[in-house]
Write a structure and sequence with these properties.
Elements lengths: L34 E4 L4 E5 L2 E5 L4 E6 L4 E6 L2 E6 L6 E6 L5 E5 L3 E3 L5 E5 L6 E5 L6 E2 L7 E6 L5 E8 L2 E8 L4 E5 L7 E6 L5 E5 L4 E3 L3 E2 L8 E3 L5 E5 L3 E6 L2 E6 L4 E8 L5 E7 L5 E7 L3 E5 L9 E6 L3 E6 L6 E6 L3
Length: about 350
C-alpha cells in the first residue's frame, strides 16, 4: 500500500501505541472480513522500498503476507526546519538512518529513495531542495516560480511540478542536471488536477477539464473525467464520467457502472499498479471501500458503516488496503485483503 492525495500521509493523533499480531480470530472485526491491525491510527509512507506506519511518537516498519501483518519498531524524531521566508516552520519526521518520512506544515515531498526532500515555502510557494550529506537547501530552479504541487519520479531522479515556470503556468519536469522542461501548458483558466509518473519515469498530467496528458504520447484517449486521480509510479488513471467509473492501466480502459456514491478523500493505487481504491459515502451516511481493477470492481462495506469517520491510508504492497478511524469508539487501523 502506498503513498499518498499528496505524499503527506501522516494523521497526527495523541497517545498512540501500535500492536500488530498474526491475525487470530480475535483480531477480525466481528461479522466482517476486515482485520483490526492496530487499536490506534497512523499514516503510511514508503521509503527505499520499505513501508512505515508513522505516529507522533514512533515509526514501525511494516511487512505482510496473505495471512498477517507484522511491525518492527524503529526510531523516530521530529526536526523543526525554518522556512526561508521566515513565515513558518516545517516539521519533518525522521526515521532510522536519518530517513525522511513525512512532513507537517507547508508541503514537504521526501523522495522515494530517501536521499532528497523538496520543500515548498508556505508563504512564497518557492520550492527548495535538500539532499542527504549536504548542508542547507537551495532553490530547485531559478526559473521556477511558485509551485502548486509536485510528485517524484519512481527512481527519484526527476520531479514533476505544477506551477509558474519560465513559459507560464503549467506542468514542468525538473531533473538532477537542473533542466526544467515544460510538459503541459494549459489554456488560461484550466488548472492542473493531478500529477503522476509511469514506471519508466514519464510524467502524466491530469487537467481540470478532465483530460490527461501522457509525456511522449499526447492526450490519453478517454472522455473527460471528474474526479480523476493518477498513480505516482504506474501509468494508471482512475476517474468518473456521468455514467461510468474508468480504470485506465497503461493503455487499457476498464469501464464499470458509476455507483450512487460520492468519493471521499484520496485515491490509492497498489504497488503493482493493478488496483485502485477510494472511500465513498452514500446519502444515508453508509461508508464503502470502492476497489477497481482491470478485471473486477468491488464495493466493500466498512466494518462500522455509520458509526465512524474513515480515512484511506493506502496500499501495503499490492493486496492489503489500510484505513483508519481517527477518533471515537472504533478508532484504530483496519485492513482488507484484495484478491488477484
Amino acid at each position: 500500500m502506498k503513498r499518498p492525495v499528496s505524499l503527506l500521509l501522516l494523521f497526527v493523533f495523541a497517545a498512540i501505541q501500535i500492536y500488530f499480531a498474526r491475525v487470530p480470530l480475535s483480531h477480525q472485526v466481528q461479522g466482517s472480513s476486515w482485520i483490526e491491525v492496530s487499536r490506534q491510527a497512523g499514516g503510511l509512507v514508503e521509503r527505499q522500498g520499505r513501508y512505515y506506519l508513522v505516529t507522533p511518537t514512533d515509526a514501525f516498519h511494516l511487512s505482510a503476507n496473505q495471512a498477517h501483518i507484522t511491525a518492527t519498531k524503529d526510531r523516530l524524531s521530529w526536526v523543526d526546519v525554518p522556512e526561508p521566508s521566515g513565515a513558518g516552520v516545517w516539521k519533518l519526521a525522521v526515521g532510522p538512518s536519518s530517513l525522511p518520512l513525512v512532513g507537517v506544515g507547508a508541503p514537504v515531498y521526501p523522495a522515494p529513495d530517501g536521499q532528497s526532500v523538496l520543500w515548498i515555502d508556505g508563504s512564497t510557494r518557492i520550492g527548495y531542495l535538500s539532499m542527504n550529506g549536504e548542508d542547507g537547501m537551495r532553490p530547485i530552479s531559478s526559473k521556477m516560480g511558485s509551485i502548486q504541487s509536485a510528485v517524484w519520479a519512481p527512481d527519484s531522479q526527476a520531479l514533476g511540478v505544477a506551477g509558474q515556470g519560465p513559459q507560464g503556468f503549467g506542468a514542468y519536469i525538473w531533473d538532477r542536471d537542473g533542466n526544467l522542461t515544460p510538459m503541459a501548458l494549459p489554456s488560461p483558466g484550466i488548472g492542473i488536477a493531478a500529477l503522476g509518473f509511469s514506471q519508466d519515469d514519464r510524467l502524466l498530467v491530469g487537467l481540470k477539464n478532465g483530460k490527461v496528458l501522457y509525456q511522449g504520447r499526447g492526450v490519453v484517449s478517454l472522455p473527460p473525467l471528474s474526479p480523476l486521480a493518477l498513480a505516482k509510479n504506474h501509468a494508471d488513471i482512475l476517474g468518473e464520467t456521468a455514467n461510468n467509473v474508468i480504470f485506465w492501466q497503461n493503455g487499457t480502459a476498464s469501464r464499470y457502472p458509476r455507483p450512487d456514491l460520492k468519493w471521499v478523500g484520496r485515491v490509492a493505487f497498489s504497488a503493482d499498479g493493478h488496483t485502485a481504491a477510494t472511500l465513498s459515502q452514500s446519502v444515508s451516511g453508509g461508508w464503502h471501500l470502492l476497489i477497481y481493477g482491470s478485471k473486477q470492481h468491488l464495493e466493500i462495506s466498512l466494518p462500522f458503516a455509520k458509526d465512524a469517520e474513515y480515512h484511506l491510508v493506502g496500499f501495503l504492497g499490492s493486496h492489503w488496503i489500510l484505513v483508519t478511524v481517527p477518533s471515537g469508539p472504533h478508532h484504530g487501523t483496519y485492513a482488507w485483503w484484495v484478491q488477484g
